[in-house]
Amino acid sequence: MQLLKDKIRADARIIENRIIKVDNFLNHQLDIRLFNEIGKEFKRRFSDKEVTKIVTIETSGIAIASIAAQYFNYIPVVFAKKHAGINMNQDVYEAKVYSYTKDQEYSIKISREFLTPKDKVLIIDDFLASGSALLGLISLLSQSKAEIAGAGIVIEKTFQEGRKRVEETGVQLESLAIIDSIKDGQVIFK
Known about the structure:
By secondary structure, this protein is an alpha/beta fold.
C-alpha cells in the first residue's frame, strides 16, 4: 500500500535500527484519513471471505479495527484485553503473549460470550514482528472454535520472522507495508 509506505518514509522514526516508531500517525496520534484507506485495503484483500467479526488486541489495534469494520458492513469489533478489570467476565479464552517493545510476557483474554463457533473472524493488528501477539489471538480463536478468515497487519517486519510462525498455522496473512530491514536509520521495504 503505497500511501502507507510513503507515510512511514516521511514520518516514522527509527530507534536503534530495530524499532519503527509510528506513534505520530498509527498508534498514539491517529491519522484517520490513512486509517480509512487501510480499512478499504483490508476489505479489498479479504473481499472473498465472509467476515462476521473483527478481533484485535488492545490498545493500538482497536482504532484500526474499528475503522476497518465499517468496510465490512459495520460488524462488531472484539478486542483481547491485556489487563482484565474486576468488571470482566471470568469465563474467558486466554493465551500468553510476549511483547517485543515492552520486553515482557502477559496474558490476553476475551470473554467467551463474544466469540462462538458460528463466528467468521478477521484478525487485524498494527504490527507483526515476532508473531507472538498474532499467535496469541489465533490461539484464542482456536479455543472458541470460530473460523479464522485471515489476518490483516498494517506493518510487518520480516526480519523478526513472525510471518513464518503465522504461516505455519495456515492462516491467510496480508500485510500492507512489509519491511525487510532497517539500515542506517532507513526503512527498506520488500
